[in-house]
Amino acid sequence: MSESSQKKHLGVGLDVGTSRIVLARRADEGFEFRSELDAFVEVPFSRMTKNVLEREQVPHIVTGNQIMVFGNEADTFANLFHSETRRPMKQGILNPEEPDGLQLIRHIIQALAGPSRSKNEKLCFSVPAPKLGGGETASFHQATLRQILSELGYEAESVDEGLAVIYSELESSNFTGIGISCGGGMCNVCLAYLSVPVFSYSISKAGDFIDEQAAQASGEIATRVRAVKEESFEFGNNQSSKILQAIGVYYDEMIRGLVESLDEAFARSKKVPRIRKPVPLILSGGTALPRGFLERFQKVFESRKLPIEVSEIRLAESPLNATARGALVATLSTM
Ligand SMILES: Nc1ncnc2c1ncn2[C@@H]1O[C@H](COP(=O)(O)OP(=O)(O)O)[C@@H](O)[C@H]1O
Ligand SMILES: [Mg+2]
Hints:
- There is one protein chain.
- The chain has a domain at 169-315: Nucleotidyltransferase, domain 5 (2-Layer Sandwich), CATH 3.30.420.40.
- The chain is built from eleven helices and 15 strands.
- It has helices at 3-8, 47-55, 74-80, 101-113, 139-151, 161-169, 207-218, 222-232, 242-268, 293-302, 322-333, and strands at 12-16, 20-26, 31-37, 40-44, 60-63, 66-70, 89-90, 93-94, 121-127, 154-160, 177-182, 187-193, 196-203, 279-284, 310-315.
């Protein structure tokens, strides 16, 4: 790539999620995305395994007599051993109960982003909003990520996850509206008026909640429930198995919780501007993917009376990439 065309492509957006880490960069046309699972699993060391992983370019590190396989292949290995993957993050921030989490998230980010392509290449990374009703902020998490990224040569800034969804999807309404990211560890919600955040919060009922509860109800392990959910769950069509039925029950609970949280957020917020025009609401994230999710959300939402009017509820163009895309839009706005 020539120097000028490389320069044209500078700037990175990074979605640091509990389930997946997604990287966005500019391409010749539009943006390009890459992602890795934010998870790892230990397998016993053997020279043979190590050689094969290298040949197959599966991201891993060797620690003593173990090999840690991380990123997208972690799930396959976990299923092989019928065990759970280990996770560097929990509920949107670094997992304090995972001793190897910091080391592993550093490796995952490094595998995805690599070193910066210019001195102080700009990068925005997503961070979760505080829990609705207060609670700790993500300041340790945020400072740690900035440190990891600056060691890779990036000039890193954080961007609120819900706001990133608005940056990604709502240019047409001048960044006015509600952006929601339904992820694994949490849902993040932001209301912005002309790009200025009015309120932004997170709630912890999301994909992992569905997996854990449905696992308990059906006597399965959560990793297996997640695989079934991602492969075959659809709304309104789940009588066929106990797992699918349980997933449906907890999906409904999650959606109800999300819609009710909007009521509470407006009630708590003292500074909701009088927005005369109805505003759009965007749903994104992996948990918004199953067929029928949008319609179910719309149905539960229908009965609500919020202080502002919602013009339409739609899915992000690419629900899994919206946060990373918005983080890149944030990066580019500073260049
Ligand atoms: N096709 C799918 N159907 C249902 N859920 C899915 C699907 N794909 C991913 N998910 C769920 O989405 C969540 C991860 O979403 P993502 O936006 O990547 O989250 P995070 O921001 O937490 O990393 C997980 O709970 C995962 O099980
Ligand atoms: Mg996310």
